[in-house]
Amino acid sequence: MKTLLELTRVGIEFNTPKGAFRALRDVDLKINQGEYISLIGHSGCGKSTVLNIVAGLLQATEGGVVLNGKEVNEPGPERAVVFQNHSLLPWLTAYENVELAVKQVFKGKKSKADMKAWIEHNLELVHMTHAMHKRPDEISGGMKQRVGIARALAMEPDVLLMDEPFGALDALTRAHLQDSLMEIQKDLNNTVIMITHDVDEAVLLSDRIVMMTNGPAATIGEILDIELERPRNRIQLADDPQYNHYRHQVLSFLYEKQKKADESPDKSQASAQDKSIGTDSVARDKRAQKIA
Amino acid sequence: MNMSLSNLPWLEPLVKIVRGDNVSQNATIIIKTIGLPLAGILVFLLVWHAAASNINTSLGQFPGPADVVEQSGNLLQEHITEREKADAFYIRQEKRNAARVKVDPDYVPKIRDYTGKPTYIDQIGTSLITVLSGFFLASLIAVPLGIVIGLSANLYSAFNPIIQIFKPVSPLAWLPLVTMVVSALYVTDDPAVAKSFVTSMITVMLCCLWPTVINTAVGVASISQDLKNVSMVLRLNYITHVIKIVLPASVPMMFTGLRLSLSIAWMVLIAAEMLAQNPGLGKFVWDEFQNGSSDSLGRIMVAVITIGIIGFALDRVMLIIQRFVSWDKAATLR
C-alpha cells in the first residue's frame, strides 16, 4: 500500500489573551491510498483542529502534513471538505452549488457539456437528481448534506475530509446517508478522513479508527484496525461478535481510559479553542453590533 | 397593517368573500387590514382639523385638511393651465416658423423653449431626479467601499473613525462648502445641468453615503466562516470570491443600508434645495414661505404631505427591488 498522506509530529499552539494554548502535540499518522479513517474523541480534543490542518484552513505550528509528496500549507480542492453544517451557498440551487466547485476545479479541462454531465453524475451518486434545481432552504437537512458530499466528490479530491458530516442529522437519516456513503465508497474507493462522535458510525464505515486523547495538548491515543469484510451490513453486524468487540474497544477507550472530567476549566478553554477558526467572525460580529 | 404596493393582504380575503367562503372570518380580516388604518387616518384628520382651527398666524389660520385639499386642487389646476399655455406657445411658434419658411425657404427655424415658471408637478419631478442621481452616485461609491472595508478588518479600523465622524453631519453644514467647490470647479459655457442641481446632488450624496457603507461593511464582515471556508477550499480568487460569495451573502444587509440611505437622501434633499435654490420641492416650500400670501401655509402643507408620500413610495420601491434581488425570501422585509 502506498502512503498518500502523512502527518508528522503535528502540533499547534494558539495565541490567546491568557497566553499560548497548546491544542495538539505530536500527531503522527500515515494514511494509505483508498483508506477510510475515522477520528474519534471527546469534544474539545482537537479532532476538528487535525482536520482543519490537513485541509489547510489552520497552519500547524510544529511538524507538517505531506500529501502526495507535497507539503500542505493552504486550502485546496484536492482536499475537499464536507462541512458539518453542509455550508451550501443558500442563494444557489443544489446543481449550482456543485457547479461552482466543478467550474473552479475543471476550468479549461472539461468542456461545458462534460461539466454538466459530471455535475449530474455526482448528484446522481448521492441520489439528489430529483431535487437538483432546488435551493438549500427547500430541501431537508439530510438532502443538504448529500449535496455537500456531491460537491466534495465532484472536486475529485485526493483525500476527502468530513467534519462530523452526519452529526446534525436524526438517527434514521444518518443511517441512510451512511449506507449511501458506503455504496459510493465501494465504487470510488476514495481516501477519507472523517470526524465522528458516533462509535457505531466509526466502526461501520472505517478501515481504521484513530482515537484521540483529551485536550489540552491532545494527541493520538490508540489506533484500531477494523478488519470487517466489505460490503458491511448494519443489521448483520449488529449481532456480529467481532463488530461488538471493536465497539467495545472504542467505548472503553472513550469512557474508561479517557474518562472526561466534568466541566474542568481546561475543557471550556479547549472547546473554545476547537472553534477558534470561527472566532475571527465572532469578533467581527461583536464589532459590527457596536457600530450599528 | 401592511398596505404596500407589493402585497395587498386584504385582496385575498376579498376574493374569498366574493366566492362565498368563510364570509364572517374574511370580513374580520378586511376590517383589520383596511378598517384600522382608515380609522387611524380619520382620527388624525379630526385632531388636525380641531388643532388647526385654534392656531392663528400672521398669514391667517393654520391650514386644516380642507385647505390642503383645496390647495392641492389649485396646484394641479395651475399645472394644467401652465401646460396648456406651453402647448399653445409651441403651436404658435410652429405656425410662425412655417409661415417664415414659406416666404424664405433658406430660413432655418429656431425653436425657443417655453420659459414659464415650473409648476408644482415639475418641481416634484426635479426633486425626484435630483434625489435619485445623488442616491445613485452615493451607492456607486458606498457599495464597493463597504465591500472592501468589510473584507479587511484592518481597513475597517482605518475607515471607521472617518465614517463615524462624517455620518452625523447635517446637509446644511456641507452645503456652503459644496456650493463654493461646485462654483469653482464646474465652469462651462454650456452647462448640461444647472449648478444648483449639481450642488444639491452632491450634498445629498455626501449625506446618504454612510448608512450604505456601514451596513454593507457589516454584512460583508458577518459572512459565516463556513462560506469563507468553502471559498478557500475552492481557491476562489479575490474577484470571484467577491462576486460569488460576498455580494450575494451581503445583499440583505446592503439593502437595509440602501433603504436607510434613500430615506436620508430624500430628507436631506428638501433642505438642500431650500438653500441651493434648486428648482424642486424644497425651493417650492421656501418660495411659498417668502411669498407669504394667505394661501402659502396651505400650499406648504400640501408639500409636506407630498414629501411624506413620496418618501414612503420610494421606500416601498426599494423594498420591491430588494425582494426581487435578495435570495433570502424568508427574511422579514419591513
What order do the helices and strands come in, and which of them pair?
The complex is a heterodimer of chains A (292) and B (334).
Chain A: E1 3-16, E2 19-32, E3 36-40, H1 47-55, E4 62-67, E5 70-71, E6 81-82, H2 94-105, H3 112-125, H4 141-154, E7 159-163, H5 171-188, E8 191-196, H6 199-205, E9 208-212, E10 220-225, H7 234-237, H8 241-257, H9 265-274, H10 276-291
Parallel strand pairs in A: 3-8, 3-9, 6-7, 7-8
Antiparallel strand pairs in A: 1-2, 1-4, 4-5, 9-10
Helix pairs in contact in A: 2-3, 2-4, 3-4, 6-8
Chain B: H1 11-19, H2 23-52, E1 56-57, E2 60-61, H3 65-103, H4 120-151, H5 153-166, H6 171-185, H7 195-221, H8 225-233, H9 238-276, H10 281-291, H11 296-325
Antiparallel strand pairs in B: 1-2
Helix pairs in contact in B: 1-2, 3-11, 4-5, 4-7, 4-9, 4-10, 5-7, 6-7, 6-9, 7-9, 9-10, 9-11, 10-11
Written description of the protein model:
Chain A is an alpha/beta fold and 292 residues long. Chain A is 41% helix and 22% strand. Chain A folds into two domains: 3-80 and 161-168 and 189-285, Rossmann fold (3-Layer(aba) Sandwich), CATH 3.40.50; 85-156, no CATH class. Chain A is built from ten helices and ten strands. In chain A, helix 2 (94-105) packs across helix 3, helix 3 packs across helix 4 and helix 6 crosses helix 8 (241-257). In chain A, 41% of the residues are buried. Chain B is mainly α and 334 residues long. Residues 1-6 of chain B have low confidence and may be disordered. In chain B, strand 1 (56-57) and strand 2 form a beta hairpin. Chain B folds into two domains: 11-54; 120-325, MetI-like (MetI-like fold, Orthogonal Bundle). The longest helix of chain B is centred in the N-terminal third of the chain and has 39 residues, at 65-103. Chain B has helices spanning 11-19, 23-52, 65-103, 120-151, 153-166, 171-185, 195-221, 225-233, 238-276, 281-291, 296-325; strands at residues 56-57, 60-61. The termini of chain B are close together. Chain B has a two-stranded antiparallel sheet with strand order 1-2. The chains are: A alpha/beta (292), B mainly alpha (334). The A-B interface holds A 55-57, 74-77, 79-81, 83, 85, 87, 89-91, 100-101, 104-105, 135, 137, 155, 277-278, 280-281, 284-285, 287-288, 291-292 and B 153, 156, 160, 164, 214-215, 218, 221-230, 232-236, 240, 244-245, 248-249, 327-328, 330.
